[in-house]
Structures are given as C-alpha cells and as structure tokens.
Amino acid sequence: MIKRLTVAAGIAALLFATSARAEDLYGTLKKIKDSGTIVIGHNEDSPPFASFDANGQPQGYSIDLCNRIADGVKTELKMDNLTVKYQAVNGQTRTPLLVNGTVDLVCATTTNNFSRQRQVDFLNTMFVTGNRLLVKKDSGIKEIEDLKGKVVSANQGTTNEKVLTELNQKLNLGITILPTKDQPQAWVALETGRTDAHMTDEVVEFGLINKAKDPSAYEVTGRLLSFDPYAIVVRRDDSAFRMVANHVLANLFRSGEIETIYKKWMDPIGMPLSNNLKVLFAMQAIPE
Amino acid sequence: MRYDWDWSVLFTDPYWSWLLSGIGLTLLVSAASWVIALVLGSAIGVMRTVNNRLMRTFAACYVELFRNIPLLVQIFLFYFVLPEVLPTPMGTWLKRGMPYPEFWIAVVSLGLYTACRVAEQVKAGINAAGRGQMNAGLATGLTPVQVYRFILLPVAFRTTIPAMTSEFMNVFKNSSLALTIGVLELTARARQVSEYTYHSLEAFAAASAIYVIISFIVVTLMRQVENRAKVQGTLAAEAH
C-alpha cells in the first residue's frame, strides 16, 4: 500500500514537475526575465517613426509601439522593475545586433519581406507605405516616366534603391542613379539641384518636406511604385515572445487606440490615416 | 546566437558582381588619389625644405590646413559646399555637368588630403639626407634644382618607401569614405549586399577579407621594392 502511495506521489510529482516545466520560459522572454532588462533597438534618423527628442530620448510612432510592448512584457512576466534600455541601430547593425541578442526588438521603418524573413521575424504590420517621388514643385515631374535621362537619388542598400534600379531597366528610362547615404544627404542633393527627384517611402517624403525651409516648394508626386508594409523586427523561432508582442498590438488595433498614436505622430507631417491602413488595423485586431 | 549562416549569397548573382565592381572602384579611387597625392605631395614636401620663405610658408599652411581637418569633413566641403560658393555655371558643372561627379570629387579630396601626409614624408626624407649633401652638391657646381633632382629626392624616396607604403594603405582604406557621397566602392557594396540579403555578417566578413588580402599583396610587393631600393650605408640597409 505504502509502496503504491509512493508511486502515486511519484507520478503526481512528475506530473506537477512537467506542468511547471511547460511554463518554463524560453528565448527572449527568458532572457528578459533573467536579465531584468528589455533592450529596444531603434533608428535615430527616421522621424516620425524613430528619432530623438530635445532631451535625447528616443521618440516616434515605432518607439511608442515598442514601449507598449515593453509594458506588455512587464505584465506578462509580472516584473515590476523591468528596465527598458534603448540602443541605436542602423540598417547595417540591426540584423547582427538582433540576432546576437544585443537588442530584443528593432523599432524603425523596416519593410517586412521574405528575403529578410530568412534571417529575422516580423510582428504584425504597423504601417503601410510605398515608393513615390519627392520633387520640386516647379520641376514639372508628375510620374516616373517624366524622369527620362534625369538624375534621381535613392539611399544605398534600401528597398527604394532596388525598386528604382528595377523600374529604370524595365521602363528603359536612362536615369542616372545617385546612391545617397541617408535622408539628409538626399535632401541636400535635391535642394541644391544635384538631383531632379528623390525616391523613398511616401511617408518619409512627407516628413522631409515638413522639415524643409520652404515646404511649399516641394511635393510628393506620382503613383505608388511599391508596397512596403512596416513591422517591428524580432528574432526568429520565438513564438512565445512574438505572441506577447502581437497581443499588445492587437489590443491597440482593437481598442482604436492605435489611431490616437497614429494621429500624434502623423498629423504634424500631414499624413492622413489611409483607408487601407484602417482596414489593415481592423483585420489584425485578433480577439482575446 | 541563432544566425542562418549562408556564405553562398556572396557567390550568387547579382551580389557577386556587386562586390567585384566594389573592389574595382576601391582600387580605382585609391590609385587615382595616390597619383594626385604623390605628385602634389612631393612638390609641397620639396617646398617645405627650400630656401624661400614664401614657398615654405605656403607649403606649411597647406599641410596644416589639410592635416587638421577631418577627411570626412573635407569630402563634404568639396562635395556639398564648394559647388554652392562657386559661380552658378561652375557649380552646376561640378554637380551634374562633368562625368561621374561623385567619383572625381572623392578622388580629388582624398588626393589633396593624402598629399599633405606625403609631403611630410618627403620633407622628412630630404632632411634625413642631411644638409651636407646639399652643400656638397652645390660645391661640385650643381644648381639647387639639380641637387634635388639627382641627390636629395632619390635618397628621400628610397628611404621613405616603408612610410609611403603605409600612406598608400591609408588611402586604400580611406577610400571607403567615398561611399558617403555615393561612390559604390567595396564597403558600400558590402552594405548593399547586407541590406538586400540580410546576411550582414557574411557581407562584411567578405569585405574585410578582401581589404586584408589586397593590403597584404601591396605590402609584400613593396617589401620587394624596398629591398631592391635600399640605400647602402644606412641603418635600414644594414638591418637586412
């Protein structure tokens, strides 16, 4: 009898232990629990998504979303004193720093695509944009076809550069491409007449014009030349963390709070919430 | 660390040809800048040693000006500021009239910067040859130009080969700054491959290896040159 009880107790203990182990954390959640810190990787020069405020604190639409995710992780792991650290990254450093565990999320203007998904994973889409042309109003340029034989800039290594190169070949436009290093340089090149147009994401163009000395001299023109869904980047094969983060986003989408955050950052640059994006938010409002 | 290593991206098209064209541009920018640096640097270096105050002051100013401004700032000044302060037609020509404006501005600014460093080496080489050589040359009836041409400069160039080699290494590595004004040299191409494929580590490892290999080849070649050109009766010659 006693022997049987022992066996029963043993089995119970085993079951208990198994269920406890099922709750064991892994991946990013375990790393955050162990270190007491979540590290948000962010861009420095991509307003209104991620840049610095006057006090040197990261700010922007993507940063707001990542801060909400950090709050969500804090609740999930029941950690009252979770430290949120910020680490600036750029196009070259974001993948290595994410993959080697230096940062846990990348909050920037990263387009989700399959070639990148071989290396990293993306949360649900937070913004949708595409390539359009940024030109001087008096240039007479309306569509990409008007750029025959002109000089057009696109930043090195971006999807914008890729789209421009492909369209240039496909439409046989004979455009001279100036591969600029970053947005400020592309802007100076356009301003000083070195280039006739700059090709980048529509939303970024609105932001650039907004900061210009004379915003009325510039315009965003032409049709959308690509489809760029922006998403926050996380490590691959980490569905537990991904779920917690996507849950936070779904709550924002469902409650409509996302529109408040959107307006906070996009109203100043005159970028209205498009119907497409509204529908996208609604479609990703996964229920509890 | 979970990283999906895939070295084959480096050998697939178009990434392979991007890196190759990057190597080509890196070598082209370095070589062209080096020509400017060597010619101008030798002239400035000689001017620093001649017996003419005006020329000496001019050369010293040149060296201090170019040596004390960071190269990146110099490139930006040449690229962004110079065309705006010049008369409009010249500025427009610099910006879009001439072929490959980015390439030439990178070459010229890198060349002018390196010239000041070469000048210092040439000056040191001439001074190392010693005042006695100059006086002896003049005493045999040579003109000052001939003393420089036949005595001082040959000795100076031969003794400064190791220093010149490291200056060339500097040009070679500094050429990566050309990417900041849109020259797609090796580093820019590596960044491009990394952005397109998300295989950053492979792309930058490849670029680093290429830089090391080319540097190694140059150093090995220059060591041969150095051995053949060493000046007999100097410390450098006895050390071998």
Describe the model.
The complex is a heterodimer of chains A (about 290) and B (about 240). With about 290 residues, chain A is α/β, with parallel strands linked by helices. Chain A folds into 2 domains: about 25-130 and about 230-285, D-Maltodextrin-Binding Protein, domain 2, CATH 3.40.190; about 130-225, 3-Layer(aba) Sandwich (D-Maltodextrin-Binding Protein, domain 2). Helix content of chain A is about 45%, strand content about 20%. Chain A is built from 11 helices and 15 strands. Chain A has a 5-stranded mixed beta sheet with strand order 11-10-12-9-13, sandwiched between helices. In chain A, strands 5-1-6 form a 3-stranded parallel beta sheet. Chain A is elongated, with a radius of gyration of 23 Å. Mean pLDDT of chain A is about 90; it is low at about 20. Chain B is mainly alpha-helical. Chain B has 11 helices and no strands. In chain B, helix 3 (about 70-85) crosses helix 5 (about 100-130), helix 5 (about 100-130) packs across helix 7 (about 145-160) and helix 5 runs antiparallel to helix 8 (about 160-175). The longest helix of chain B is centred in the N-terminal third of the chain and has 33 residues, at about 15-45. The N and C termini of chain B lie far apart (about 50 Å). The mean pLDDT of chain B is about 90. Chains A and B meet through helix 4 and strand 11 of A and helix 3, helix 4, helix 9 and helix 10 of B.
